[in-house]
Amino acid sequence: MIEKEIMIQGNDPIFGTLTFPEEDVTYPALLLLPGSGPVDRDGNDRKGKYQTNLYKDLAHFMTGLGFAVLRFDKRGTGKRGGDWMAAGLSDLTSDAKSAMKFLRAHPNVDQENVIVCGHSERTIIATILAETMNPAGCMLLSGGVDNLMQALHHQRQLAYKELFELPGFKGWINRTLKVDVKNEKKTEKLLEKMKKSDEDIIKIQFFFKQPAKWFREHSDYDTRAALKKVTCLVFALHGDKDPLVESRVLEELDELVQGKSEYHIIHNMEHGLRVQDEERSMLKMKKIFKEVLKRPLHEEGLEKMAGWLNSHFKTKDVSGSK
User: Per the CB 3.0–4.6 Å rule, which of 12, 29, 221, 238 could disulfide with 68?
Assistant: First the structure.
């Protein structure tokens, strides 16, 4: 495997890593878009608290299948300047489009066979690129169909359900105080404040920063309407232990997209595509995550990805070499 550091020129240069199975051969390619939060091209944060290497591992796996793979630092992570919290959906989409153009123009990439692959929140950006840039395929990992507001609503409802089901006094007091009603009112008030603001970042209670532009632009984006314009092949993958997504929405894919689609829900797989034997839980997710990080990516999940990629995008050298 060949791994190279790249820089995409512009007013705000983008730094990333491009991997190939071999040099001087032309390959189908994947643009890998990482999930939300301050994690770099590999899936790691600057402070070393969350060292997942998820995107590095995925890139190496996909390169092993015979694909070129580009992953890059988001704003304010890795070698990239800026503030990740100030970036809105439009900024993130602009970066992704620049990376897609770079990948298509690379001499060792088959520009007719470039696939966009988004994880978590970046499944929404992958959908935008599928709608507007006509890639050969679109992969939605641990996300898809719902927009951000709908996904967050689902997460809150699952958390309320767990709070109400706590044993003894804890569950009783949560039900009695109607914590769901009170929290939904607070959430609605906060979202309204961000929508009315024209700032990239706002503070609540004087100290706590919130990515207002990110929320505003996400709340205005209709993912299902975009999917209706998607003509490329679409692949979606969820884990049944992932509390951050509602997997039933994947049943809508076939009716939404114009091209052929397929989806898989993997038993005992969590949001970061690793093995999770523990229960599916919003309240215990952070605690479980510490143990999950010690485990490998889910073998069945990788097999489903490999099967789709190999069946639709056979590795080939369009320059004539084999």
Answer: 29
